[in-house]
Write a structure and sequence with these properties.
The protein is α/β, with parallel strands linked by helices and 202 residues long. Helices cover 40% and strands 14% of the residues. The longest helix is centred in the first third of the chain and has 17 residues. The radius of gyration is 20 Å and the shape is elongated.
Length: 202
């Protein structure tokens, strides 16, 4: 195999969910495509990588300081849905069942991967709640071991807000599942049947 092709396949295979065989198909597809199409793809990726920002309110991806959701005056400012990743926001938005705001943690607590609570945007969440507009926080975090650990850690952090209603999405999402890969009906039921969490329990 050509060394140039090998290099392209090797780089494409580094993407999540892309194996060597799929990477080879993608590389050959780009080789058969018009040069202008490939150049547009490379330019779009370059613009995305250098121009993307994180919303200063919710940590979602944005073109500006505020993402479209946070700048939408029609959203319910009293409710914040806390999720792990940007993909979770997209999955919940597809259901059209939620009209509040979001807060993207940027991951979950995972000592094995070197992710500590300080690496997540939990302080930013507390700052938003401390302003006094938020009445309910929905913890929409995956049911992995790391997700459960993160949920209970955040729950403990939120105990200092006694008037705050804290709920979690109903556990219709199976243990070990990620929200990003759940179907829309499952997410809809999980959002609608969320449970209140007790901030005062030991």
């Amino acid at each position: 195999m050509s060394r140039l092709l090998e290099d392209a396949v090797s780089e494409l295979a580094k993407l999540p969910g892309i194996g060597k065989r799929t990477a080879l198909r993608l590389a050959l597809h780009m080789l058969r495509s018009e040069e202008q199409e490939v150049a547009q793809l490379i330019e779009a990726i370059g613009r995305f990588r250098t121009g993307i920002r994180y919303c200063r309110e919710c940590n979602n991806l944005s073109d500006d300081e505020l993402c479209p959701i946070c700048s939408d005056p029609g959203r319910d400012r009293a409710t914040i849905c806390v999720v792990e990743q940007v993909g979770d926001v997209l999955s919940i938005e597809k259901t059209r069942q939620y009209r509040g705001f979001y807060h993207v943690l940027g991951g979950v607590i995972s000592p094995m991967q070197g992710i500590a609570p300080s690496d997540l945007k939990i302080d930013l969440l507390e700052e938003r709640i401390a302003r006094g507009d938020v009445r309910e926080v929905i913890l929409a975090i995956g049911t992995t071991v790391e997700g459960e650990t993160t949920l209970f850690y955040i729950l403990n952090r939120l105990r200092r807000f006694p008037d705050l209603k804290v709920t979690s999405i109903a556990r219709g999402i199976g243990f070990g599942d990620e929200i990003e890969y759940a179907d829309e009906l499952t997410i809809t039921h999980a959002i609608q049947n969320r449970q209140k969490l007790d901030l005062n329990s030991d």
